[in-house]
Specification:
The chain has 356 residues and is α/β, with parallel strands linked by helices. The chain has one domain: Alpha-Beta Barrel (TIM Barrel). 55% of the residues lie in helices and 9% in strands. It is built from 16 helices and 8 strands. It has helices spanning 3-10, 22-32, 41-50, 52-55, 58-65, 71-96, 116-127, 141-152, 165-184, 200-214, 226-241, 256-259, 272-279, 295-304, 306-312, 326-350, and strands at 14-15, 36-39, 103-107, 133-138, 157-160, 195-199, 246-250, 267-268. It has an 8-stranded parallel beta sheet. α7 (116-127) packs parallel to α8 (141-152) and α10 crosses α11 (226-241).
Length: 356
């Protein structure tokens, strides 16, 4: 039995595969007990490279089938098809768990991060692609508005571009508002399965960028605990307040982003390569979620990094400040670039270079 399969069978902690690759998802389900997966423009580019033989003929077909479509429209159609194929693999799990697990997470266009109406319109469209879709919405000021409204409409959301405790709490409150509105109108919520992602590794990344820019020296390894600390604090508050959504750990950089959350009623979502590394390691499967981050590490982070204090305090960021946070801007820029790169790949199929 793999270590991750042991985790999924002996603890409340669940596994999602951080890719919609059919080969990787199939292996993750069979070997490690995965009950979910993710698709976004970054992942689609990676999958195209990994499974080019599977898709190299489909892209020209899509271009022919959509004769008036723009390169961007064809690119998003490709994302939808990849998501639908992966969702099909997860559908038996979805039915087994009655909607709580077995979902494929598809990301709304990151370029819509300031437009709640555009996010919601795309979320409603994506939700119709398969019964087990869960829709990724960025935790920006506009995203919070879209999260509440999408939840009210019965759409299961996965909050993304999220790194901080204030964001996680704003998501939970928005989901609760949406659920309560449905309940008041006697609308069903039993098969909904919302989650809030904390991109723990990307918070670590951002603080390391700050350390380099500002010449800050820290104790070795301290910055690898920043995202872990935020996730553990958010989990404790979620449990105390009884929020009806689960936290998800993403953006893996080291085994702490998996091992420290084992035992919690949470989801971990490592790439398949990280799953193989963890299974081959000597890191034990044991309950660590309730173990606090060492006081000296928290003191180091809080004393030297205002952006960690903002991430770790309940009132560290206002809703209007979500869009301005360094990790948010850095991640949105990367996601938007990946979207542009995918569109450019499709454009090359529409307009092959005549000079080559």
């Amino acid at each position: 039995m793999s270590r991750l399969l042991q985790m999924t069978q002996t603890t409340p902690t669940k596994l999602w595969n951080d890719s919609c690759s059919i080969e990787e998802l199939t292996a993750s389900i069979q070997t490690n007990g995965a009950v979910g997966a993710t698709c976004n423009p970054v992942i689609v580019l990676t999958v195209l490279k990994q499974e080019w033989n599977r898709w190299k003929e489909r892209i020209p077909q899509l271009i022919r089938e959509m004769p008036t479509a723009s390169d961007e429209q064809v690119a998003w159609k490709l994302i939808e098809e990849m998501s639908q194929k992966a969702a099909g693999l997860l559908l038996p799990i979805f039915e087994q768990y009655q909607g709580r697990f077995g979902r494929l997470s598809i990301q709304t266009n990151p370029k819509f991060f300031r437009n709640a109406s555009a996010i919601l319109e795309q979320a409603e469209h994506f939700a119709q692609l398969a019964p087990n879709m869960i829709i990724k919405i960025p935790v920006t000021a506009a995203g919070i508005e879209a999260i509440e409204q999408a939840t009210y409409k019965g759409i299961s959301i996965n909050a993304t571009v999220s790194f901080t405790l204030p964001q996680a709490l704003a998501v939970a409150e928005a989901v609760e508002r949406g659920l309560r509105r449905r309940e008041r109108e006697k609308k069903d919520i039993r098969r909904m399965g919302p989650v809030c992602t904390l991109m723990v590794g990307r918070l670590d990344d951002w603080l390391k960028v700050v350390a380099e820019k500002e010449g800050i020296i820290t104790e070795p390894g301290a910055l690898d605990w920043a995202g872990v600390a935020v996730m553990k604090k958010a989990y404790r508050i979620y449990q105390e307040r009884g929020y009806r959504l689960r936290l998800l750990s993403a953006a893996f950089r080291n085994h702490l982003h998996c091992s420290e959350f084992i035992g919690g009623d949470v989801v971990i979502s490592p790439p398949f390569e990280w799953q193989k590394r963890y299974n081959a390691s000597d890191v034990t499967v044991e309950n660590r979620m309730d173990r606090p981050v060492a006081a000296n590490i928290l003191s180091e982070l809080e004393s030297k990094f205002p952006d960690f204090r903002r991430a770790y305090a309940e009132d560290g960021l206002s809703l209007q400040e979500f869009d301005e946070y360094g990790a948010t801007r850095r991640t949105l820029r990367q996601f938007c670039k990946a979207t542009d790169d995918l569109v450019a790949l499709v454009r090359d199929g529409m307009l092959p270079n005549p000079d080559l």
